[in-house]
Amino acid sequence: MAPRLDEAADVLDAYVQDVLTVPASLAGLPALNWPIGVSVVGQWGSDDMVLDVGGAIEGVYNENSRSSAWYSCEGLNL
C-alpha cells in the first residue's frame, strides 16, 4: 500500500512497492495495479482492453466484496 503523504517512507520500502510495476512502464505497456494484489498488463496498444478488463474486475470486486469468494471471476463479461 502506498504511504500517506504525511508518513516518511524509506527507500527500500518504496523500491519493493514499485518493483512489479517497473517492467511494464519500461516496456511502454498499459497496466493497472490494485492494492488487493491484482495486476493487469496488456500488449502495446491495447489500452482500451486493459481498461475494460480493469472495469470488469472492479465491478465484480465491488459487487462481491462482502463475500469471501469474490475472486471466482463469475460475472466477468469480457
Write structural notes for this entry.
By secondary structure, the protein is an alpha+beta fold. It has one domain. Helices cover 41% and strands 10% of the residues. It has a two-stranded antiparallel ribbon. Strand 1 and strand 2 form a beta hairpin. 1% of the residues are buried.
Summarize the structure.
The protein is α+β, with helices and mostly antiparallel strands and about 80 residues long. The chain has one domain (about 10-70). It is built from 3 helices and 2 strands, in the order H-H-E-E-H.
For the structure shown, list the relevant keywords.
two-stranded antiparallel sheet, 78 residues, 41% helix
Strand content: 5-15%
Category by helix and strand content:
alpha+beta
Give the oligomeric state. single chain
Give the tally of structural domains: 1
Biggest pleated-sheet summary: 2 strands, antiparallel
Q: Work out the helicity level.
A: 40-55%
What's the tally of helices?
A: 3
Q: Give the spatial strand order of the biggest sheet.
A: 1-2
Per the principal axes of the C-alpha atoms, what is the gross shape? flat
As a whole number of angstroms, the C-alpha radius of gyration is 15 Å
Q: Roughly what is the average pLDDT, rounded to an integer?
A: 75
Order of helices and strands: HHEEH
How many DSSP-defined strands?
A: 2
Poorly predicted ranges: none
- For the termini, the CA-CA separation is 28 Å
InterPro entries: AS_sf
